[in-house]
């Protein structure tokens, strides 16, 4: 396992270096990229779990969420700099897709798995509720208000408004991280886990500092490979989307799904071990990191980017976001959920994917 999880990240980066910037890749190469991409995803999950076991919760969940988001931001900025059709809405579509995937896909799957064995999935409503409140404000400031402000034409911010949204996003995300890791760390630990080590983890000694640092480095390498190979695969995905007659926004959804695969698998594994709180930390934390880091980065990049920057959501997207917030609040308030709540979130996720294909 160690050899395989070490080889996959390195191989993904080497393959990325050999295919980056090339167009019209042969079908065999596209297939090889897909296989290596899947291997890099599984390796990223393994190394993230090693780091999480060493540093304990909720730091472990934070490591994967921030690492994926930082590389995702780099991918968005790179694509926007390259220009092309649809780049003016790329940041909005990517962030919104990340919110829908994490809040409905990851959360719904985690609740379903967690409630399957015991009938109900238990978690800390205090910490999860605070995460949802922060996420709601972040999404509203960055994705909802541009639709209704009048300072700029269309669903855009003025320069001053964009600067305010960027600063507010960084401040809110920083306050949440401080609360999660320092002031109220116990609110984000699995129910009954006072020290953050986990019941199952007590039977295995934590990895050494050297092993944890090695896994952290390989995690970063694997995430670079995942995001980069997802971009390499995007032309093939675009061709398939065009051939099927789907909207161009579907490409962003598919790439977001690929990028978020490590977090999805890690969240499912945690739920399978009856640690649903970790799954929720990953889901909601990734959504917050996606907005809290992406919007400031895009605001800085907009200084030299040409063309408009559309951040405001459309009517259908607004309806899905409002429905997601309401359903999530009703799910979180009791501090426990049945399979029904998980299935409701998964239906919402399916509605998002369906409406992205058939707007």
| Strand composition percent | under 5%
CATH architecture: Up-down Bundle
**Structural class, from helix and strand content?**
mainly alpha
**What would the average pLDDT be, to the nearest integer?**
83
CATH class: Mainly Alpha
Task: Describe the 3D structure.
Pfam families: Na_Ca_ex. This is Calcium:proton antiporter. Its main location: membrane. InterPro entries: Alkaline_pH_Ca-Antiporter, NaCa_Exmemb. This protein has 359 residues and is mostly helical. It contains twelve helices and two strands. Strands 1-2 form a two-stranded antiparallel ribbon. Helix 4 (90-118) crosses helix 8 (249-259), helix 5 packs antiparallel against helix 6 and helix 5 runs antiparallel to helix 11. The chain starts with a helix and ends with a helix.
Please write out the topology.
Elements: H1 2-19, H2 27-55, H3 59-82, H4 90-118, E1 121-122, H5 125-148, H6 159-183, H7 209-244, H8 249-259, H9 261-272, H10 276-301, H11 315-332, E2 336-337, H12 339-357
Antiparallel strand pairs: 1-2
Helix pairs in contact: 1-2, 1-7, 2-3, 2-7, 2-9, 3-7, 3-10, 4-8, 4-9, 4-10, 4-11, 4-12, 5-6, 5-10, 5-11, 6-10, 7-8, 9-10, 11-12
Keywords: Membrane, Transmembrane, Transmembrane helix
Protein name: Calcium:proton antiporter
Membrane topology: Multi-pass membrane protein
Question: Which features would summarize this protein structure in a list?
Answer:
359 residues; A middle domain of Talin 1; 2 strands; globular
Give a brief rundown of this model.
The chain has 359 residues and is an all-alpha fold. It has helices spanning 2-19, 27-55, 59-82, 90-118, 125-148, 159-183, 209-244, 249-259, 261-272, 276-301, 315-332, 339-357, and strands spanning 121-122, 336-337. Helix 4 runs parallel beside helix 11 (315-332) and helix 5 (125-148) packs parallel to helix 10.
């Amino acid at each position: 396992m160690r050899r395989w999880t070490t080889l996959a990240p390195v191989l993904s980066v080497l393959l990325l270096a050999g295919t980056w910037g090339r167009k019209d890749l042969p079908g065999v190469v596209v297939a090889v990229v897909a296989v290596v991409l899947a291997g890099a995803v599984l390796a990223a999950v393994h190394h993230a779990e090693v780091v999480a076991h060493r540093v304990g919760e909720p730091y472990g969940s934070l490591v994967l969420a921030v690492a994926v988001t930082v590389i995702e931001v780099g991918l968005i900025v790179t694509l926007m700099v390259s220009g092309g059709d649809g780049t003016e809405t790329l940041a909005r579509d990517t962030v919104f897709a990340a919110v829908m995937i994490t809040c409905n896909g990851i959360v719904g799957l985690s609740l379903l798995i967690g409630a399957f064995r015991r009938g109900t999935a238990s978690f800390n409503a205090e910490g999860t509720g605070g995460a949802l409140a922060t996420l709601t404000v972040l999404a509203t400031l960055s994705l909802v208000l541009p639709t209704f402000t009048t300072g700029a034409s269309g669903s855009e911010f003025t320069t001053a408004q964009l600067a305010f949204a960027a600063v507010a996003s960084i401040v809110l995300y920083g306050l949440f991280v401080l609360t999660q890791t320092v002031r109220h760390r116990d609110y984000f630990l699995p129910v009954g886990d006072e020290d953050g080590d986990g019941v199952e983890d007590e039977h295995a000694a934590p990895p050494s500092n050297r092993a944890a640092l090695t896994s952290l480095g390989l995690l970063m390498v694997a995430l670079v490979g995942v995001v980069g190979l997802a971009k390499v695969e995007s032309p093939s995905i675009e061709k398939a989307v065009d051939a099927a007659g789907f909207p161009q926004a579907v490409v962003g959804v598919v790439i977001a799904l690929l990028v978020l695969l490590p977090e999805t698998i890690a969240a499912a594994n945690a739920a399978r071990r009856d640690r649903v709180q970790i799954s929720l930390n990953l889901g909601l934390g990734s959504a917050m990191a996606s907005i809290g880091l992406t919007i400031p980065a895009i605001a800085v990049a907009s200084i030299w980017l040409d063309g408009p920057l559309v951040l405001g959501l459309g009517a259908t997207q607004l309806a899905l976001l409002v429905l997601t917030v309401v359903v999530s609040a009703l799910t979180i308030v009791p501090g426990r959920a049945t399979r029904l709540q998980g299935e409701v979130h998964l239906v919402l996720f399916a509605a998002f994917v369906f409406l992205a294909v058939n707007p």
